[in-house]
Amino acid sequence: MSGVWIAVGGLAILLIVGIVVGVILYNKSGSTTDTDVTTTTNTENSSGGTVVSNTGGTVVSNTGNSSSSAGTVVSTDTSSLTFMVVSDIDQDVYESLATLSAPWGPAYLVTAGDLDYTDPDTKGPAGHAGFKAGIGKHFAGLLAAKRIFPAIGNHDYDMASGDDAAAFIEYFNLKPGTALPGNVIVPSYEGAPYYTFIMGNIQWFVLATTSDLGGGGFSKGSSQYTWLSIALTASMANTAVKFRFLVNHWSPFSTFRYCCAGSCEADLFVFPLAEKGIDAIFTGHDHGMGRYSYPDESVEYQVGGKSYGKLAGWGGMMAFMTGSGKNDGDRAEDSCEGSVTAASGFTVHAHHDVLPNSQGALKCTAGAASVKFEYYNTKGTLVDTCTLTRGRGRVGTRGRESGFWR
C-alpha cells in the first residue's frame, strides 16, 4: 500500500513541476507578470494604439483617450530612444536630411517649423503641395505613424490669401481635441496650434508665440501662457517624466541675424521657463546651427547691442538653434559680427553659419537618466555633441565644444 502512495506522490510532484514549467514558459512569451516585460497602457488613440517597443517584450493595452491637456505618462520604458530635430528646411534639402537620418532610425521627428518654402503666391489655405513634396515625401513613414511634431513657422502660414494656418493644421493633424502620445489632446486655441506630448521619459511643449494669426501670442496672461503654466505644473508632478523640452519657431536667444538685429522673441522672457521645469529649448527662424547655455540670472542678458535685463527663472537652461535645413550657407544672414563683445548672460558652445556645417540635423538619444545630442552636417560629419544628465538639482551638461566664431 505504501508503494501505491509513493507512486501517487511521485505523479503529483511531476504534475506540479509541469505546471510550474508551463507557467514560466507562458510568462516568457509575454505575460505581464514576467519582470522582463513592460506593461504599457496605450492611451494615444481610441481606435487603434501604438506598440511601444522594449527589450524583453511589451504588452500593450489600448484603453482609449480621456485626457486633459496637462498630460500623463503612457510608458515606463527607459530603454534608449532616438529622435531627430531640424527646422527651416528648403525643398531641395529634404532628401539629404532623409539620407543622413536613415541609419539613425529615429522614432520621431521634432521641428521648429518653416517646412514649406514654396512661393506664397502658389499656396492657398487648403494647399498641401509644399508639405507633400518635402516632409511628406521624404519622411513618409514618420508622417504616416503620426510621429512628426512641428511648431508652426512663418513660412507655414504665409499664403497667397494672407496669413492662414489651415493647411498646416490639417496636414499635421493638429486640430483641437486630437489625441497625442502621453494621454493628452491638442487644447482649444485661436489661430495657431500649441500642444504637449510625451515620448518615453521626455515631455515636449510646442508653442506658437506668433500673434499674426490671432490668439494673443504668448503675452503674459494670454491663453497660451496660462495653458503652459498649468501643463508644466502637472508635468512636474509626473515622476515618470525626466526631461522637459520646449519648441518654438522664434528664438529668445541666438547669435544669428534676427536676434542680433533686436528681434529676439522677448515675449518668452515673461515666463520663468527653467524655474517651471524646462530643461532645454529648441528654435528655428534664424538659419544655421547653434548651442547655448542659458543665462546666469544675476547677469544682464545682452545681444546685438540690445539689453533684455536680468531674466528671472531662466538660469541653467540649454538652448539649440535648429534652423539648419537651408540650402545656402549665406542664408545664415549676418550673424552677430561686430557685436560679440556686446553679448552677455549666456555662453555660446557652437555657432555654425557657413556650409557645410550650417546644414544638418540633431540626432538625439534619450536614456533613463540622460539625453545625448549629436549634430551632424548633411555630409555625415559629427560637428558638435553634448549630453544632458539627471542628477540632484538642475540638469547638468557635458559636451565637446566646437569652434563657433568664424
TrEMBL record:
Q: Which residues form the Calcineurin-like phosphoesterase domain?
A: 82-288
Tell me the domain of life.
Answer: Eukaryota
- Region annotation (Disordered) maps to 34-55
A molecular function GO annotation = hydrolase activity
> TM segments?
6-26
Keywords of the record, alphabetical order, are: Membrane, Transmembrane, Transmembrane helix
Signal peptide residues are: none
Q: Does the keyword Nucleus apply?
A: no
List, alphabetically, the InterPro entries matched. Answer: Calcineurin-like_PHP, Metallo-depent_PP-like, STPP_CPPED1
**Record-linked Pfam families:** Metallophos
Keyword Oxidoreductase listed? The answer is no
Q: Can you name this protein?
A: Calcineurin-like phosphoesterase domain-containing protein
Organism the protein comes from: Sphaeroforma arctica JP610
